[in-house]
Design a protein that fits this description.
The protein is an alpha+beta fold. The chain folds into two domains: 98 residues, no CATH class; 67 residues, no CATH class. It is built from six helices and four strands. The chain has a four-stranded antiparallel beta sheet with strand order 2-3-1-4. Helix 4 runs antiparallel to helix 5. The longest helix is centred in the middle third of the chain and has 28 residues. The radius of gyration is 27 Å and the shape is elongated. The two termini are 32 Å apart.
C-alpha cells in the first residue's frame, strides 16, 4: 500500500507536460510551402518545416537566410593560409635555413602547394564544425519525436511545426489557421 501511495505522490509532484507547439501534417510539398508562406504572412516567426526531401522555396518561405556559414568558412580558410605561411617561414627561414641551389630562404612559389592544402583543409573543417554548431547538432531528442505520425516525415509526409515560443502563438487561433490551410491533421507537440 505504501508503494502505491508513494507512486501517486511522485506522479502528483511531476509538472504537467508543456506545449512545445502545434504540428500540422500535409500530403504534398506544395501544400507545405503554401502553409508556411501563409503562417509567415500572418506573423508567425518561430516555426520549422520537415520533409522527406529538399523542397524548393521552403527555405524562402521560412525566411531562413544565414550568412554565418560562408563567413566561418572564409575565416577558417584564412586561418589555414596564415598557418601555412607561418609554418613554412618558421621552418625554412628561422629554424632550419638551408640554401638549396642559391634560392632565397623565403621563396614563396615553393610555399604554394602547402598554402593551398591547408587553406582547403581549415576551410572544410571549420565549415563542418560551423554546420554542427549552427544546426544545434547532435540533437538526439526533439519534442516532435513525441508525435507518432512524425515518423513519416522521412518517408512521405510533410510537417509544419509552429512553436509555442512564438509571440503570435495562441493555441486555438493557431490550430484554426493550420486547419484552414488544409492540414491533414493538427497535433499538439508536448515537451
Amino acid at each position: 500500500m505504501a508503494i502505491v501511495e508513494r507512486a501517486v505522490q511522485a506522479e502528483a509532484m511531476l509538472e504537467p507536460a508543456r506545449l512545445h507547439g502545434l504540428l500540422a501534417e500535409f500530403d504534398t510539398a506544395e501544400e507545405l510551402v503554401r502553409a508556411t508562406r501563409r503562417a509567415r504572412s500572418v506573423g508567425y516567426r518561430h516555426m520549422d518545416a520537415y520533409s522527406p526531401f529538399p523542397v524548393e522555396g521552403l527555405s524562402d518561405a521560412l525566411d531562413f537566410h544565414s550568412r554565418a556559414l560562408p563567413l566561418i568558412c572564409l575565416f577558417g580558410g584564412l586561418a589555414g593560409l596564415l598557418t601555412a605561411i607561418g609554418m613554412q617561414y618558421g621552418i625554412h627561414v628561422v629554424l632550419l635555413p638551408l640554401n638549396v641551389g642559391g634560392r632565397p630562404l623565403d621563396s614563396w612559389p615553393s610555399f604554394i602547394p602547402v598554402m593551398f592544402e591547408l587553406t582547403v583543409l581549415f576551410a572544410a573543417l571549420s565549415m563542418l564544425v560551423g554546420l554542427l554548431v549552427l544546426n544545434g547538432l547532435p540533437q538526439p531528442y526533439h519534442p516532435v519525436f513525441n508525435v507518432a505520425a512524425f515518423a513519416r516525415a522521412s518517408r512521405d509526409r510533410f510537417f509544419l511545426c509552429i512553436e509555442a515560443s512564438d509571440p503570435s502563438f495562441d493555441p486555438a487561433a493557431t490550430r484554426r489557421l493550420l486547419e484552414e490551410l488544409a492540414a491533414r491533421e493538427v497535433r499538439d507537440v508536448l515537451e
